[in-house]
Amino acid sequence: MRATPDIQKLNSTEGDNSYVLDRIATAGSNDAALRGPLWLRTLESTLVRSSNAVLFVFPDGRQLRCGTGKVVAEVRLRNARALRSLESLDEGNIAQSYIDCDLDLTGDMLALLDLRRCFSDRHRAHSLWRFIQPIFLGQIRTNAKAISVHYDQDPEFYLSFLDETRCYTQGIFHDDNEPLNVAIRRKFDYCLESCRLGPGSHILEVGPGWGAFTEYAAERGIRITAVTISRKSKEYVDSLGPRTGNCNVQMIDFLKYAPGEQYDAIVVMGIMEHLPQYDQVTKRFWRLLKPGGVVYLDASATRAKYDVSSFIYRNIYPANHSFFVLHDFLKAVANSPLQVRSVAEDRHNYFLTFKHWAEKLESNREHLISRFGETNYRRFHLYLWGSVHSFRMDVLQCYRVVLDKPLS
Asked: pTM (2 decimals)?
């Protein structure tokens, strides 16, 4: 028989907010009878089927071990708000408690994130606003506002967890243990070869980020024009000067971009998540490409459009942005004159990439908190590890797609 604690009462310091935990009894290894609050019964029933255990530390210092295996992670509840978030069994509430420093998560984040299967995620008001906002503001203004939430921070924040290439999209790994920078450069080479680019080629890069691919292409004699709606991204790429071939970065939404020229290729790395209007996007591709031109894109994906957690649309990518949906996009391509040359699946590659970023973020924890605040650190800590977990569990996918514009 496994011993379990008898926790009678926890009193908070917030007025009449108190929480009562009834005795949790276990009859035997093959006949577990769990009694107590629903959230404890739910978590225990999930952990008992795994080889892991999680230690819960309550505001008064008492501890509760959930699971029969080795303790691999700890959830430390600081106050009654944290208790209420757990009681809700709602993923969005628990995530917000972590961001707000009401509870701490330490240890094996992937083991903790396995508990997501127990939680609901119902936030109808927030979800509805995602789609009402573009109606009132217009899609272009909504895009600008949403991009600023994620990208318009000091670039140093992102560079603290990205690798030396500064690339904010997945690499292509040939070995799980190879360095991230090797995998990123392999992806860049795949793009250049797929687009048949060489010295003198002129490309349009949609969303240059921190100039990773921009610099890589410029070193090979390729001329780059870039469009972005992130002020910080433009400032950073502009600051690279000759390293990007003095890339012409324009502050304009891709859906409004209408220059008087066409390009040899259009490169869209990690930006399709912000361009879910696929019919408009394919029409823009067609107009901006020279005959014989090529589109290269890659993106994190889901199987259903706008299927994102409340944590993501409240804290990472707000408004009606959506992970890439391959089958919907291919329908839009099929309704256009563009031709699909290849589709490559990259889920494991993005799993490895996000894992590199999450581990590096953790290694720089103290610096990031002192420089950018604990809320920002926790927001990205949960985002990066949550993405690692989502790619591992096939909640998220990732694809590379290459399209051709026929010569005639």
From this structure: 0.86
